[in-house]
Design brief:
heterodimer, A: mainly alpha, disordered N terminus, B: mainly alpha, MetI-like fold, globular, transport (chain B), MetI-like_sf (chain B), MetI-like (chain B)
């Protein structure tokens, strides 16, 4: 489309290209604006943040707000960040590997009753995720999982949708490679561990990266199950600062920065996998 | 010779009687590989939903054990409760705003990004990176800076350039300006995700179609309407479904923008069903009523999804 319109249109094509860049330029500035505001405000003084006169940058760059944020005894931001990291670091690989295991078995292993297990998995997708917070709370609560890290993590380790994605992936996996492994004396588990799994690295990375983002940014479930400050995640700590109508504005923005920056960096590093994961899960589901 | 012949006959036997001869090793591996998923879903979906269904038929307050049998009382209460009904109205209105706006914006951005050759990676990243931000952090920036209602707020600073006086965006109920705050927030967070899906759809359209259209002298708009849009039909259906289901489960931004907190949500001008259910389940600890609400909401979401499928299905005929 680019090539044809530019060639055919001549002057009109050039004008169109300029207009396209103009729209995209303005839109991207608007999209990046909140990041800039977050960083700018986090380094300003209270006076500067609430001043009606526009200031591009703080007069003095100061990290005092960050120090203050981490020394606030009522909102344990440091331990909350630690909890979030632990939750995301456990959830992403474990949930992805579990899904890969089940997806492989459902796609490849010649077992009677395979279809029934597939149905069993698919049926759970009919009830939308966050609506189930009440039933899940009922079960995790009965198991004594309130205010525990495992209570936050456990329900997120089982993802029916990811199982389906992996099943589709392994259905297209060339059978010859597996047969070669069988001839070399590998059992069914050996073929999965030595051949199928190492060949799914990009799929594991894609879905793992998405799972990491979801686990880090999750709000409703950690809010429901982790009511004690010791079990707060970074999102709950930040929300507590926000809804407590804190008067320390720069401190609030510093809180936003420390919860956003680790993920934004990971996002930029793993962007290729994230885009791949989004297209796989968005369109093939 | 014999050693190679034996497995061959065994394989033949398996092929001839696939149902009778069950490969025990395969069954063992199958059980090992599917066990975590089967047990996990069993516990957190089947047992959870089953128990919750029982609770919804009981008067269970402050206890996760079954209280006293209440039949359909919880459902009847919710269906006649103004709070629950208006929360459904809220989420329908929210969906009616957010879905078309996000749909058009993400499609437009995808078409534009797909057109440029230089800087494509930069633009794609700029629109996608908000997807890494949580609703809580975004709510903080929207509430305390962009739309804080003070002269220092970014929206009001921009308005000042055009001679507008400061507007209390979140506090104004008439007209309900808070919708602008809620819709722009979700738009910012989600538009990049859907743009990526549309970009993948656009790149799958055969180039020859555009070349043929150019030869026939079709204009840009005509090409878009007659080729791009119909070719994107499957992507559009998937995107709309994802948006719809996500909008019906809105919670984070409503909770954080309106500061419902644990203290109560009486100050919030609007609350979606999940905020309402959260109040019943966690604040009032009325698990029976909250369970009933969760099932009613599920029914509503399934119905809306089916309705959307029907509408799109009708569109396909003409």
């Amino acid at each position: 489309m680019t090539a044809t319109s530019a060639r055919a249109g001549g002057a009109r094509g050039v004008a169109g290209t300029i207009a396209t860049y103009l729209v995209l330029g303005v839109a991207s500035v608007l999209f990046l604006l909140p990041f800039y505001i977050m960083l700018r405000n986090s380094m300003m003084t209270q006076m500067e943040v609430s001043s009606p006169d526009w200031q591009w940058l703080p007069a003095i760059f100061s990290l005092d707000n960050y120090l203050e944020l981490f020394s606030d005894p009522s909102v344990p931001m440091a331990s909350a960040l630690g909890n979030s990291l632990l939750i995301a670091v456990v959830t992403a690989p474990v949930s992805t590997i579990f899904a890969s295991m089940a997806g492989y078995a459902l796609a490849r292993l010649p077992v009677p009753g395979r279809g029934a297990v597939l149905t069993y998995v698919v049926v759970t997708m009919m009830i939308p995720g966050s609506v189930t917070f009440v039933p899940t709370f009922v079960v995790v609560g009965a198991m004594g999982g309130v205010n525990t890290t495992w209570g936050i993590i456990a329900p997120g380790l089982f993802n029916a949708f990811a199982v389906l994605l992996f099943r589709n992936f392994y259905l297209r996996f060339p059978a010859e490679i597996e047969e070669a492994g069988r001839i070399d004396g590998l059992g069914y588990l050996g073929v999965y561990l030595r051949i199928a799994l190492p060949n799914s690295v990009s799929m594991l990375a894609s879905l793992g990266a998405l799972s990491f983002i979801d686990a880090w940014n999750a709000f409703l479930w950690p809010l429901v199950i982790g009511q004690d400050p010791a079990s707060w995640t970074a999102q709950i700590a930040l929300s507590t600062l926000l809804t407590a109508q804190s008067v320390n504005l720069p401190g609030l923005f510093a809180g936003a920065v420390v919860t956003v920056v680790p993920l934004a960096v990971m996002f930029l590093v793993a962007q290729r996998y994230i885009v791949q994961g989004l297209t796989t899960s968005g369109l093939k589901g | 010779m014999t050693s190679t012949a034996a497995p061959a006959t065994a394989a033949k036997a398996v092929a001839r009687h696939p149902r009778r001869r069950v490969d025990r090793h395969a069954v063992g591996a199958f059980i090992l590989l599917t066990a975590p998923t089967v047990i996990g879903l069993g516990l957190f979906k089947y047992v959870a939903i089953g128990w919750s269904l029982l609770l919804s038929l009981n008067d269970a307050r402050g206890t996760l054990e079954l209280g006293s049998w209440a039949g359909l009382d919880n459902y009847a209460f919710l269906l006649s409760d103004d709070g629950f009904r208006s929360s459904l109205g809220t989420v329908v209105a929210f969906t009616a705003f957010i879905v078309p706006v996000t749909f058009v914006a993400s499609l437009a951005l995808a078409v534009l990004v797909n057109r440029v050759r230089r800087g494509r990676a930069f633009f794609r990243t700029a629109f996608l990176i908000p997807a890494a931000v949580s609703y809580v952090a975004a709510s903080l920036v929207w509430k305390m800076s962009l739309f804080n209602g003070l002269p220092s707020g970014i929206a009001n600073t921009l308005g000042d350039l055009f001679g507008m006086s400061p507007v209390p965006w979140i506090g104004t109920e008439q007209p309900p300006l808070y919708w602008i705050v809620l819709v722009t927030l979700r738009l910012w967070l989600q538009v990049g995700l859907y743009m990526i899906l549309f970009l993948a759809g656009l790149q799958a359209i055969p180039q020859e179609l555009y070349e043929a259209a150019a030869i026939d002298g079709a204009g840009a708009w005509q090409t878009f309407r007659r080729i791009t849009l119909p070719q994107l039909r499957n992507t559009s259906v998937a995107v709309m479904l994802l948006m719809l289901i996500a909008a019906f489960q809105a919670f984070d931004e409503f909770y954080n923008i309106f500061s419902s907190g644990l203290g109560g949500s009486s100050t919030a001008p609007v609350q979606p069903p999940l905020v309402y259910l959260y109040g019943i389940a966690i604040k009032d600890q009325n698990y029976g009523l909250a369970s009933a609400g969760a099932f009613l909401l599920t029914v509503v979401i399934v119905l809306v999804t089916l309705l959307q499928g029907r509408l799109v299905g009708f569109g396909r005929k003409d």
